């Protein structure tokens, strides 16, 4: 406006002058106009250039993310602050309007010139406090792996955003980021969208019937006879009454004598358990996993998971299937799309160790950004279950005995009923799994793994038509699973209870014969045996009925004091351990164990628990409680902790 006014004044001077203007006055006015106009043009150009460069530096977003965001179903409402201190002045408003105008001009020019409107100015008009959201999203898609991990970490540590900002991340992030957030301890659950709606059930159908159909659609190849037998048994259950009648004969879950339960009170759950147990075995075969996914198994299993919120055994078997499917990377996108990551992110935060550990296994198998190992069925990481910056320097492995379990075998000595009725938040006072709570806190640089035998379908069933599997067969299977989990890549301490100690001895002997397993031997530092019957058990001397109640017949025979297999195992391992100079610590019970209300049995006597090397420490507890410390400062735990620290001292210091 000042330029126009100046021009008008000059023109009026020229037009209204009574005498002819002198030439030098005329050119002076022209020069002044040119100088002033040039200054304005130059200054405006510099200002515009500065604003464009500032905008380019501040906002660099991906147009594809924005376009995808526009297609989402959420409507976000921006809140207006009531704080008068946040009211911006005219200069801020002018700058904002200038940014809008520049973007419109650039967008128009991009269309005219047919150039992609990306890189510097591909964005929407966003507020300053929202820039972090979009910049973190872009950073999470970086080609630099460390930048991606840093972006996920920053997202997980953010707790001051508005609800809609978490939802923006949930909708716009890629699967890697979503999985990373699920494996970050501090992540807000608002990062995870609800799973997509499940398809409607077919008319005149039920989840039980659809589960049977899914099982029937799976190939019957590559399965041993025992699995085929139980598959056909599950399919033959034609009514809930028949399922209830047969369900009372079975005990699933491998939780030991004190926890043996019947599904007779929940017929529908019993029928579904038959099918799920069979599908668990099918899911160990990659090609069968493809069939499960193609036939809608992910959605059906999710429906069952929701229906059986109050049935942990059903949920655990479902998570076992998903964890097995997650071992196949080509199925990861299907698992993410079906909403399982959101479900497992919530399960990870559960106070129930079994639920959280099953979820941790699934997410670890999905996380190919930070996890190279693969955790097969029955191998559970107790620590660390989340992504961590803590370097892991050694592994400690827990191997339970027959009729034991990966979690309950290692609980604190106490009545389980008290824990169920009122969970104790202070884990130093009571824990349902002391390796996960006490040991992880005392030795954070350890990876703690607990192993569970697959005792739920064929291996320990009285009706299984095949002979029970031997210690030799089972040790070979466990060794293969542990090597896939990276056991042997770091220093290792083995901790075993009862029959689990025999498996450890057999695994180490077998590993010494295989060149590809040499790292397992070279990195084994020490072994702890809790009441391991190196020379046999009194259990085998009891009647057939008692043996049938406790152990399958083949294992009972191998437990006999005159068992050739047990004697050979002891002799071979003793010579091998002395040659390798393993550190060994033996604990043994001194009290008898009550089995039921009438049977009192000293399962492993002192002479049988003596390996021949290492310290032998008697403890005044029974066979079940020899691996369950009464409290954190109890001798049983403190001596175990001391052994681990001393055995791994050099490795933990490095």
UniProtKB/TrEMBL annotation:
- What biological-process GO terms show up in the record? phospholipid biosynthetic process
This protein's source sits in the domain of life called: Eukaryota
Localization (cell): Endoplasmic reticulum; Mitochondrion membrane
Q: What do the Gene Ontology cellular component annotations say?
A: endoplasmic reticulum; mitochondrial membrane
Keyword match Transmembrane helix: yes
Membrane topology listed for this record: Single-pass membrane protein
Keywords, alphabetical: Endoplasmic reticulum, Lipid biosynthesis, Lipid metabolism, Membrane, Mitochondrion, Phospholipid biosynthesis, Phospholipid metabolism, Transmembrane, Transmembrane helix
Iron-sulfur as UniProt keyword: no
Primary subcellular site in the record, as a coarse category: endoplasmic reticulum
Extract the InterPro entries matched here: AB_hydrolase_fold, ARM-like, ARM-type_fold, SERAC1
The record's family statement is: Belongs to the SERAC1 family.
The task this protein performs is described as: Facilitates the transport of serine from the cytosol to the mitochondria by interacting with and stabilizing Sideroflexin-1 (SFXN1), a mitochondrial serine transporter, playing a fundamental role in the one-carbon cycle responsible for the synthesis of nucleotides needed for mitochondrial DNA replication. Plays an important role in the phosphatidylglycerol (PG) remodeling that is essential for both mitochondrial function and intracellular cholesterol trafficking.
Q: Name it.
A: Protein SERAC1
Which organism was this protein described from?
Callithrix jacchus
Upper lineage: Eukaryota, Metazoa, Chordata, Craniata, Vertebrata
By which gene is this protein encoded? SERAC1
């Amino acid at each position: 406006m000042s330029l126009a006014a100046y021009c008008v004044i000059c023109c009026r001077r020229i037009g209204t002058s009574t005498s002819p203007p002198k030439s030098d006055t005329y050119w002076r006015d022209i020069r002044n106009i040119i100088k002033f106009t040039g200054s304005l043009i130059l200054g405006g150009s510099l200002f515009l250039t500065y604003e464009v460069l500032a905008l380019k530096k501040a906002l660099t977003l991906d147009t594809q993310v924005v376009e995808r965001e526009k297609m989402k179903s959420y409507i976000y409402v921006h809140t207006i602050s009531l704080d008068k201190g946040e009211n911006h002045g005219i200069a801020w408003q002018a700058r904002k309007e200038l940014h809008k105008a520049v973007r419109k001009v650039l967008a128009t020019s991009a269309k005219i010139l047919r150039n992609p409107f990306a890189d510097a100015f591909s964005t929407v008009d966003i507020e300053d406090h929202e820039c972090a959201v979009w910049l973190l999203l872009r950073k999470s898609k970086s080609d630099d792996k460390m930048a991606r991990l840093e972006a996920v970490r920053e997202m997980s540590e953010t707790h001051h955003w508005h609800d809609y900002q978490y939802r923006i991340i949930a909708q716009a992030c890629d699967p890697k980021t979503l999985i990373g957030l699920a494996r970050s301890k501090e992540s807000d659950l608002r990062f995870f969208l609800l799973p997509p709606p499940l398809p409607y059930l077919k008319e005149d159908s039920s989840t039980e019937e659809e589960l049977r159909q899914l099982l029937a659609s799976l190939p019957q190849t590559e399965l041993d006879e025992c699995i085929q037998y139980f598959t056909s048994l599950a399919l033959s259950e034609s009514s809930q009454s028949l399922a209830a009648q047969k369900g009372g004969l079975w005990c699933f879950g491998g939780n030991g004598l004190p926890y043996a339960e019947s599904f007779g009170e929940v017929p529908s759950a019993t029928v579904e358990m038959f099918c799920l147990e069979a599908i668990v075995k099918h899911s160990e075969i990659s090609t069968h996993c493809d069939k499960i996914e193609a036939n809608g198994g992910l959605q059906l299993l999710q429906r069952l998971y929701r229906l059986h919120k109050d049935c942990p055994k059903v949920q655990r078997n479902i998570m076992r299937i998903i964890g097995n499917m997650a071992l196949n990377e080509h199925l990861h996108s299907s698992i993410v799309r079906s909403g399982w990551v959101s479900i497992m992110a919530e399960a990870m935060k559960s106070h129930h160790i079994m639920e959280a550990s099953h979820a941790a296994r699934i997410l670890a198998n999905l996380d190919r950004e930070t996890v190279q190992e693969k955790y097969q069925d029955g191998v559970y990481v107790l620590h660390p279950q989340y992504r961590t910056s803590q370097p892991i320097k050694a592994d400690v492995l827990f191997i339970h005995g027959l009729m034991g379990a990966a979690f309950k075998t290692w609980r604190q000595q106490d009545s389980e009923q008290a824990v169920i009725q009122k969970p104790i938040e202070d884990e130093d006072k009571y824990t349902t799994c002391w390796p996960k709570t006490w040991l992880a806190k005392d030795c954070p640089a350890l990876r703690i793994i607990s192993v569970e035998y697959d005792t739920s379908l064929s291996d320990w069933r009285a009706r299984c038509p095949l002979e029970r599997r031997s210690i030799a067969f089972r040790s070979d299977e466990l060794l293969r699973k542990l090597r896939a989990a990276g056991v042997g890549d770091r220093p290792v301490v083995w901790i075993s209870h009862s029959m689990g100690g025999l498996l450890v001895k057999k695994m180490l002997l077998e590993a010494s014969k295989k060149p590809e397993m040499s790292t397992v031997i070279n990195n084994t530092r020490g072994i702890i045996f809790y009441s391991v019957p190196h020379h046999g058990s009194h259990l085998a001397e009891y009647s057939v009925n008692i043996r049938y109640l406790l152990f399958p017949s083949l294992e009972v025979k191998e437990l006999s004091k005159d068992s050739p297999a047990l004697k050979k195992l002891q002799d071979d391992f003793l010579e091998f351990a002395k040659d390798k100079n393993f550190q060994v610590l033996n604990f043994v019970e001194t009290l008898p164990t009550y089995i039921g209300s009438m049977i009192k049995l000293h399962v492993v006597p002192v002479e049988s628990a003596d390996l021949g090397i290492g310290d032998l420490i008697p403890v005044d507890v029974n066979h079940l409680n020899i691996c369950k410390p009464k409290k954190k400062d109890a001798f049983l735990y403190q001596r175990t902790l001391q052994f681990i620290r001393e055995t791994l001292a050099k490795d933990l210091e490095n």
